[in-house]
Design brief:
Bound molecules: zinc ion
Number of helices: 10
Number of strands: 18
CATH topology of the largest domain: Quinone Oxidoreductase, Chain A, domain 1
CATH class of the largest domain: Alpha Beta
Number of domains: 2
Shape: globular
Helix content: 25-40%
Order of helices and strands: EEEHEEEEEEEHHEHEHEHEHEHEHEHE
CATH superfamily of the largest domain: Medium-chain alcohol dehydrogenases, catalytic domain
Radius of gyration: 20 Å
């Protein structure tokens, strides 16, 4: 089968290669990939700003259909439409595994980074990591399940947004649009920020009913936040852009004792005004992956129509056109670009 492979560490070293199909173990499912989304992490992998274990097939945001099940699999059948957690090898015994945070297990192995991922025709996943796609959700939409649950983890598990919170979401890419919808589902009043380059993303945000969209290059964000919070500052910032400027502005706009959650990755070190964190008693939280809770709640919110995924899908290309897709993602053209595997034979 054709697969997009990181062949060695270092910038570049990504290539579509012919590789053998994965073999399904006794507690595993073999899944024919329907779609796999391009994610910021894939761009960091291209530039070698994110650790990987090459040679490895990359891609971790996928949906598909079960084509084979192992002898010990009980919950799924051939033909089921599924998504899966990309964190697939954990120790099961460390303090993280034992407290439900297996996705950041000390010995974690993730598909698309350390183990073969989903920019390929087939992927093999452990039964315990697989979830059925709700009948209301299409295979294209379901390819956004993994970023969706990163957003529900950030908003629900890590930040614990509460009804009535004013929530500043910085960065209107896929993660920002998902986090904004999750915060709204929790009862938050969302302000979503971006720049002039995000015009298309703001249009999608308005279609999704996000009440306040602010172009920070043209509008006075501090004044808008002041008006909406009677001068207190926002309860919560969810930083999804990975931009230094958004961090500086976000930290300055939180109320005293508010929460700042960092979701975007920077690929470098960035300065933070820690004196402000101290004097305003701000809580800083990181959010990278997900939990079983985030998967269950995320998929349920989509099935209920409280989070909409289809408006975020702006292009679908064949896997062989990955370079075009990565370039458009980097140029901030569109929102979520899906790749469709080559189905030869
Ligand atoms: Zn991702
Ligand atoms: Zn562990």
């Amino acid at each position: 089968m054709k697969a997009l492979v990181k062949t060695a560490r270092g910038p570049g070293n990504l290539q579509v290669l012919d590789v053998s199909e994965p073999v399904c173990g006794e507690d595993e499912l073999k899944i024919e990939v329907a779609y796999c989304g391009v994610c910021g992490t894939d761009i960091h992998i291209l530039k070698d700003e994110f650790p990987t274990h090459p040679p490895v097939i990359i891609g971790h945001e996928f949906s598909g259909t079960v084509v084979e099940i192992g002898s010990k699999v009980t919950k799924f059948r051939v033909g089921d439409r599924v998504v899966a957690e990309n964190v697939c090898s954990t120790c099961g015994d460390c303090y993280l595994c034992r407290t439900g945070h297996y996705a950041i297990c000390i010995q974690r192995g993730a598909q698309g980074l350390d183990l073969d991922g989903a920019f390929a025709r087939y992927i093999v996943c452990k039964e315990q990591n697989v979830y059925s796609i709700p009948s209301e959700v299409s295979l294209q939409e379901a390819a956004l399940a993994e970023p969706l649950v990163c957003a529900t983890h950030a908003v629900i598990d890590q930040t614990k947004v509460r009804a009535g919170d004013v929530v500043l979401v910085t960065g209107p890419g896929a993660m920002g649009l998902l986090a904004a919808q999750a915060a709204m589902a929790e009862g938050g009043l969302v302000i979503l920020t971006g720049t002039t380059a995000d015009r298309e993303r703001f249009e999608v945000a308005r279609k999704l009913g996000i009440p306040h969209t602010v172009n920070v290059e043209r509008e006075d964000l501090p004044r808008i936040v002041g008006d909406l919070t009677e001068g207190r500052g926002v309860d919560v910032v969810i930083e999804c852009s990975g931009s230094e400027r958004a961090v500086t502005s976000g930290v300055s706009l939180i109320k005293k004792r508010g929460t700042f959650t960092q979701v975007g990755l920077f690929g470098k070190k960035v300065p933070v005004d820690l004196d402000t964190i101290v004097t305003r008693e701000i809580r800083i939280v990181g959010s990278m992956s997900h939990t079983w809770n985030a998967w269950k709640r995320g998929l349920s919110l989509v099935a209920q129509g409280k989070i909409r995924l289809a408006p975020l899908i702006t292009a679908v290309y064949p896997l062989t056109e990955w370079e075009r897709a990565f370039k458009e993602f980097e140029d901030r053209k569109g929102i979520k670009i899906l790749l469709e595997p080559v189905r030869e034979g």
